[in-house]
Amino acid sequence: MSENGIKPYVRLVKSSELDVLATIQRRAFIDDPECNYFGSVDQPLSDEVDSPGKQHLETFFRFLTKACLRCGARITVAVVPSSESAGEDSEEKICASTIWMPPNKRISLGSVWALVRSGVFATVKGWGLNGLIRVGVEYGEVSGRALKEAYATRGLKKQSPDSSWYLQLACTDPHEQGKGYMSLLCREAFAHAPSSIFTLEATTSHSRDRYTHFGFELFKEVRMGVNKVNKDGLPAKGKEAEGVPIYSMVKWE
Question: What sections of the sequence does the record tag as coiled-coil (predicted)?
């Protein structure tokens, strides 16, 4: 239950809510190491200070969400009605969200039309071509190898990780943390596709531990940006340039 006694629930996102969702995603990932690396951020971003980096991050999430939707994503939100008698047209507050890519539906650089229509050029303008390569190529290669290895270890060499439900993105509004919204979203996803395999990459130790609580198993820790950035995704040299950790996780059937 929410603080005002109104029960939250899960539904599909509405197209009219994508801009609001991008703002929530930006707030949730403002200091995420992976996003710092993608955006070539040279110093920590803050929601308290307007900056180009802050705006570039929101632009990226707006693009990513729209592109995923065009590629077949199932985007769910945990919402709280404005009142106990709230009807379908009443105002609702979005508290958390998940973007699930169904089996054999993935977003990639090969999805040219979907990327263009979703605003890829705005992201390139903000992050540069290097940012797009880090997101679309480096990340895909690193995460893909780890998941293939996980499947092989499980004896599923002939089955592709692309056949799983893949969690492209999940976030909770920082102002709504600790209220069980992500648990609500994950339970809904598992009920929607029972007996399915679910895969994801956690980008912090905190999110890794949360997903373990939801039934995901940590398979392997991999890194991006080794010899370029530190664990926070910021430029570094020498021993501090250990790269950004990514935790490959699977929830088996």
Answer: none
